[in-house]
Amino acid sequence: MNLTRGQLDRISRLGEQWSLLWDKRRRLWIAAEDAEDGEQIEEADLDVLLDRMAEYPARPAERPR
User: Fold this and answer.
1) Percent of residues in the chain assigned helix, strand, coil, to nearest 5
2) Can you tell me whether residue 12 is helix, strand or coil?
């Protein structure tokens, strides 16, 4: 999977809040929000996925218990 410079930049900006995975078998990108009750998004098109991820407001960092 070759990513463009723009895609890499967008991923790095969203990387604090989200984890990304490419599912080769299903040919889908999967994004999971790094929070207990976080969202999960699946899209075949990475640019569409990144647009959807950017729509979610940033959550404050959780405090250690």
Assistant:
1) 30, 25, 45
2) helix
Q: Kindly report the backbone phi and psi dihedral angles of residue 11, in degrees, each rounded to the nearest multiple of 5, phi listed first.
A: -60, -40
> Can you give the residue ranges of every domain in the chain?
5-55
pTM listed for this prediction: 0.81
Q: Six-digit token pair at 18?
A: 């989200």
Collapsed DSSP state (helix, strand, coil) of residue 7: helix
Q: Give the span between the Cα atoms of 60 and 30, in whole angstroms.
A: 22
Convert the pLDDT of each residue in 21-58 to its tens digit: 999 999 999 999 998 889 999 999 999 999 999 998 77
Report which of 58, 21, 13, 59 is spatially closest to residue 43, judged by C-alpha positions.
Answer: 21
